[in-house]
Amino acid sequence: MTKLLWLIIPVFVIISGFQDAPKKAVAVTASSDEWELYRLINKYRKENNLSEIPFSASLTYVAQKHCEDLVYKIGHLTHAWSDCNYNPADRSTFSCMWDQPKKRTTYTGNGYECAHGASNGYKATPKSSLDGWKSSKPHNAVFMNQGIWKDMKWGAIGIGMKDGYACVWFGEETDPAGEPKKP
Fold it and tell me: How far apart are CA 8 and CA 15, in angstroms?
């Protein structure tokens, strides 16, 4: 029995250690619309004397997965995920959004999302998405590093677009996975 315990305990320790093992870097391709939205966002920032934000494969993966979740499982615009509740009036739920990059990729920082779109046949385009965020003071503040976002130094940005939705994810850390591939 002692020999069996000595065998079981190390196996348990090894297996439990894998639960927190880093996730694999993602290989993701950004669509032509996602690349265009990336270009438009950085053009807008440059027009306002702000630096370009590096395109992130990890944050693009998260953005694409959230768009898919919105289209196939949730059916309406929200920062929530089908497996994670988010309530903008309840700060205790904010980690549902912030932790998605760490949960799904090797990206180590928090993610902050701006989402745009609707169901019922609406088609989000790069221009309509950016125009929507520009006309929304709280969303525009994220893009322009204003208000509560003024001290944030964006080191990465990810973009996902699917049917009626566009999601942009911002992060302070640079992404070791690099940028997404071109189509």
Answer: 10
Give me the residues paired with residue 166 across strands: 116, 161
This prediction's pTM? 0.86
Contact by Cβ (8 Å): 168, 41: yes
Q: Which residues are bridge partners to 113 per DSSP?
A: 169
CB-based contact 175:54 (threshold 8 Å) = yes
SS3 7: helix
pLDDT tens per residue across all 183 residues of the chain: 444 333 333 333 333 333 343 466 778 999 999 999 999 999 999 999 999 999 999 999 999 999 999 999 999 999 999 999 999 899 999 998 999 999 999 999 999 999 999 988 899 999 999 999 999 999 999 999 999 999 999 999 999 999 999 999 999 999 999 999 999
Query: What DSSP letter does each residue of 48-95 carry, written as one string?
Result: TT-PPPPB-HHHHHHHHHHHHHIIIII-S--S-BTTB---TT-GGGTH
Separation CA 152–CA 115 (nearest Å): 19
Residue 117, sorted as left (phi over 0), alpha (psi -120 to 50) or beta, turns out to be: left
Please name the residues in contact with 17: beta carbons below 8 A apart, sequence gap of 6 or more.
none
For residue 36, give both structure tokens.
Answer: 């265009």
Query: 170: burial class by Cβ within 10 Å (0-12, 13-18, 19+)?
Result: buried
